[in-house]
């Protein structure tokens, strides 16, 4: 889909949210909506189906998302009316990027062999907050190929303290020494 289309909808909703002091609320609404659609592929199929009427799609949205703000529902309805619902995921990502920029937040991913417990996770975020001098929000993704340790990606930077990386480095060093 055209990036310009995504940008127009995202900026309009971000500006509306900002003007109404609802950035936090709308960010949470968008996350919730995206989670519902990510977990329910049948719902995605209905929204993408041209044989399902606009009225039926709007009715479905009103019945499923009863607890979200009316502005968030209106955004969904506008996307449905304009046959642009397929940009919703990209719109959310663009909205979050703007939100993070305004609020000095960096997003990152921590790969580990198991889910980090809440204390370790919080300590890691706090350490990264200090390192980058910004608030860092991490997502924990399980990667059993690491063997142990962590691999972290924040703002295009990689901090790799995994056993797999150490073994790969040792192997490369030994191969170079053997030449």
Topology:
Blueprint (H helix, E strand, L loop, with lengths): L2 H17 L3 H17 L1 H8 L5 H11 L5 H12 L6 H15 L2 E8 L5 H15 L2 E8 L6 E6 L2 E6 H15 L2
Parallel strand pairs: 1-2
Antiparallel strand pairs: 1-3, 3-4
Helix pairs in contact: 1-6, 2-6, 4-5
Please characterize this protein's 3D structure.
The protein has 179 residues and is of the alpha+beta class. The protein contains eight helices and four strands. It has helices at residues 3-19, 23-39, 41-48, 54-64, 70-81, 88-102, 118-132, 163-177, and strands spanning 105-112, 135-142, 149-154, 157-162. A four-stranded mixed beta sheet has the order 2-1-3-4. Strand 3 and strand 4 (157-162) form a beta hairpin. Helix 1 (3-19) packs across helix 6 (88-102), helix 2 (23-39) packs antiparallel against helix 6 and helix 4 (54-64) packs antiparallel against helix 5 (70-81). The chain is elongated, with a radius of gyration of 21 Å. The protein starts with a helix and ends with a helix.
């Amino acid at each position: 889909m055209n990036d310009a289309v995504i940008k127009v909808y995202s900026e309009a909703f971000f500006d509306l949210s900002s003007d109404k002091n609802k950035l936090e609320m709308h960010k949470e609404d968008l996350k919730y909506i995206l989670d519902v659609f990510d977990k329910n592929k049948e719902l995605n199929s209905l929204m993408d189906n041209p044989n399902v009427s606009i009225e039926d799609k709007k009715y479905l949205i009103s019945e499923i998302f009863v607890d979200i703000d009316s502005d968030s529902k209106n955004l969904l309805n506008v996307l449905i009316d304009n046959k642009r619902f397929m940009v919703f995921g990209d719109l959310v990502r663009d909205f979050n990027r703007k939100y993070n920029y305004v609020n000095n937040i960096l997003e990152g991913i921590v790969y580990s062999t198991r889910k980090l417990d809440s204390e370790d996770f919080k300590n890691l975020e706090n350490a990264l907050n200090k390192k980058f001098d910004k608030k860092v929000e991490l997502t924990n993704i399980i990667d059993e190929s690491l063997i142990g340790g962590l691999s972290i990606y924040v703002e295009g930077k990689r901090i790799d303290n995994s056993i797999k990386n150490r073994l790969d480095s040792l192997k490369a060093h030994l191969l170079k020494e053997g030449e």
